[in-house]
Amino acid sequence: MNSAVIKDFVLAVNNSNNAFNLNINSTSVKILESPVTDPTTAPTPRPAPPTTTPSTATTTPAAPEHTYILSAEFKEVAFSPALTDSNSDEYKSLEKAALNACKKKYRSKFQNTFSHCILKNFSALNPPQDNKAQATVGVVFHGTTAIADLPQNDVVAQTLVEALSNSTNSPNLSINSASVKVLESPVPNLITTEAPATTPAATATNTAASVHRYVLDIQLIGEAFSPALTKTSSKEYKALEKRILNACGNIYRKTYPKTFSHCLLNKFSASNVTRVTETQANFEAVFHGNTSQVELPMNSVVIKDFVLAVNNSNNAFNLSINPDSVKILTSPVTDPITTEAPATTPAAAATNTAAPDYRYVLDIQLIGQAFSPALTNTSSKEYKALEKRILNACGEIYRTKYPRTFSHCLLNKFSASNVTRAFETRANFEAVFHGNTSHAELPMNSAVIKDFVLAVSNSNNAYNLSINPDSVKILESPVADPTTAPTARPVAPITEALVIKRVIFSSLLTDFTSDLLNPSSTAYINRAAKIKEQLTPVFKREFPSFKFLEVKSFSNGSIVNNMDLSFSSTSVPNNNQIVQVLMSAAASVIGFDIEGSLLDLNGIHSSGVSPITSPITASFLVLLSWLLSSQWP
Q: How far apart, in whole angstroms, are the C-alpha atoms of residue 469 and residue 454?
């Protein structure tokens, strides 16, 4: 039979143990002439003389292959940039080992239906975790295989676990079995979101769903089109494909880490008749099938994300595009498909069909964040590190709260907080909402402030930010709260009620100097930082209602330390509890001491006894120091 002739050839060439030194596209194999007809077609006489027109039986295209796309996290393989370069030795070595293990296992298990394995990519875990790597692979079955004969998704996933976890693999390819996901599948059964357990009882419960595809078309500027870009095996095609997919993957994986899956290139073509030297690219941004419609981004946002990222001069994509050329040809969402890219100049913006975004401009005071000139330089490490913390917090807070309408955050600037507290930093940033959001769906200013304050003040967050909640203001807004007229003036923040305890303690082992009166001096900044850094964790641990500590001033005597402790009004510790915690910390603090007999809380003197020293002991130490110094030659 024709099908048997094709199958014999494909299986033999794809057998990793052969010595043919051939690599073929399995779906390309066709019989153009044949002495036989498969049972499904009528007999066809042998052509005489032979013509280039194939018989009816042989012109029918081979059925498309069935491909499962899976991802898995390696346990031992460390991610490095070389694993994104298909020409690197590291990439080739790991690819060869993974595909050999994959083919060997699937071929032994599915002898009659399995075709081959393909590597899609290697990538770092998202979010990053111990510098580990993950792989996305395709497991391909013959197109002639009936759907009923294809293995279930949990079986395919478990087979991958067995293939890569084989102790004979070199290098060690063992994977985290719980990380294995079937991203795409030709069968309608359950798609596992976790690798199946080794016991039959473990079954998936998530209903399979087709992936969501946005098909984009873009014009590449300065990218000469040539016939080689129509051949998927050419170096030119592969090199440009890699650049397109790297950009697409990086952009959407960063913006949609939980829902984005991967990108696929469809084709390159000449851009048009008048610009035949330039290239048009058609590709897909694919989102996981279990993503709900409300979580899928709008078409205008998908376009904007790509255009803004590629036009950012700091990117490493090595692509130049015509932003007005970016179009979405097909989409899984129902909003109007934008046919023009987001404008890059104010003039162009006026003609863009996309509605302008809504922007809330916020201003906050960061507690314990020393201001320095480096925070005015957008290229400095200090600026970038603090910018990342602000935008991570802003993005996570508002994306969680407003998943359908929130777009992104932007940092405008950092500045010194004010004249009297120049050592701390203010941040001015924007929370941006999609332009197609109705006014009724936009949050009130008070809600925007409250969302940020409550999230950052939650001791369980991972934002690494400490703010003065009373400092949070909205400077510009697209809405007016019911009690106010539309205005660009600061809106009074709505924050949870706080109770402030003024705590004054003395340090007898350090001499007072006049620069401690100046909040901008190095001595003031360093001492305030030591007190805040060492006492804040103590109060957080002991009092869940504790919010933050703020050093207010220093004065002579030897050094009198004035600080405010802020607590949620729902649970405020009494003075004795605060004293006990403070005195327990006295034995472990470094760089300053706490004199227990000279404590003052909200004007009430405490009779606590210091575990470090007392006035009599201190006097003795001073006298002893004087006697020793006087005896020293």
A: 9
Neighbouring C-beta atoms of residue 423, cutoff 10 Å = 21
Rounded distance between C-alpha atoms, residue 341 and residue 347, angstroms: 14
Report DSSP state, residue 467: B
Contact by Cβ (8 Å): 362, 475:
yes
Residue 250 in tokens = 């990086």
How many Cβ atoms are within 10 Å of 566's Cβ, its own excluded? 22
Any idea where the domains of the chain sit in the sequence? 1-62, 64-208, 212-349, 358-476, 498-619
Q: What is the pLDDT of residues 413-443, one digit of tens each?
A: 998 876 444 468 899 999 988 888 888 889 9
Q: Quick one: average pLDDT of 357-366?
A: 91
Q: Provide the token pair at 191.
A: 């798609």
DSSP tally for the chain: helices H, then strands E: 12, 17
Task: Retrieve residue 336's tokens.
Answer: 């109007």
- 507 close to 592: Cβ distance less than 8 angstroms: yes
Note the Cα 429 to chain centre separation in Å. 20
Whole-angstrom distance, CA of residue 166 vs CA of residue 105: 10
Topology of the domain covering 212-349? Alpha-Beta Plaits (3.30.70)
- The CATH number of domain 64-208 is 3.30.70.960: yes
The shares of helix, strand and coil residues in the chain, as percent rounded to the nearest 5, are 35, 25, 40
Quickly name the fold that domain 358-476 has: Alpha-Beta Plaits (3.30.70)
Return the percentage of the chain with pLDDT > 90, whole number. Answer: 17
